[in-house]
Amino acid sequence: MLYRVEGIVIRSMDYGEGNKIITLCTEGNGKIGVLVRGAKKVKSRHAAITQPFTLGEFAFYRPNHGLGTLNSGEIIESHFSLREDLFLAAYASYACELLDRTLQDEEVGSFWYTQLKACLESLASKKDPEVVIALYEMKILQAAGYGPVISNCVSCGRSADTYKISPRLGGSLCPSCGHYDPAAQKVSAGVFKLLHYFERMDMRRLGNVEVKDGTKAELKRIMRDFMDMQLGLKLKSRSFLDQLDKYGI
Predict the structure, then answer these.
(1) Is residue 54 within 8 Å of residue 75, measured between CB atoms?
(2) Exposed, middle or buried: residue 116 (CB in 10 Å: 0-12, 13-18, 19+)?
(3) Which terminal CB of the chain, N or C, has fewer other CB atoms within 10 Å?
(4) Residue 10 near residue 26, CB atoms below 8 Å
(5) Is the pLDDT of residue 222 over 90?
(6) Chain-wide mean pLDDT for the chain?
(7) Of the candidates 221, 176, 172, 170, the residue with the CA atom closest to the CA atom of residue 193
(8) Does the structure show a pLDDT above 70 at 126?
């Protein structure tokens, strides 16, 4: 059967002497693997559309299950600016790998696609990548069914003036329920406000937000704890980001 879909290249790998296999995140067909014959050849007409982060329209033949074979492709947005910048490429790679490892094959949902698309667009438009990725992580957790409960106590459901954050229990704890997780963390008012906004915000609505370095560092730590506790993924792209951060690149 011939499929025609709009998708984003979240993974690209060499296959054989001249071919590539790309993994697409699509809006209506989930995550799809497609074989692109001859993509590694210098004069290949399909070479450009196999590049990571590329948004395009892909036509491919595919049996009921398994790998598709590309028939034609048209680039909608190449996102070349993300690939040419080491820093932005690292964040974009993390966004794609996180979705790839979290989204199961054939799991359909426009939310995954729209949030990744908005994330890459935000990175390309030079919005603060640390804020972009923190919001994106919140959306991935929500899409996977592990979204943190921030606005109310995750234990009793009541609202309170002050909370602690419990990545293990998946959200905020009011003073009355703080004993359920002795490791729950106090957070600054700025970080709690961001988490509260992120809980309700769509990636597509993110504007240019200015956040102090200290607040971003605290936000990154809290979101890292949520990701580790709820998903437990070891990602090569995150390790690379940590290396960039370690050496101040």
Answers:
(1) yes
(2) buried
(3) N
(4) no
(5) yes
(6) 93
(7) 172
(8) yes
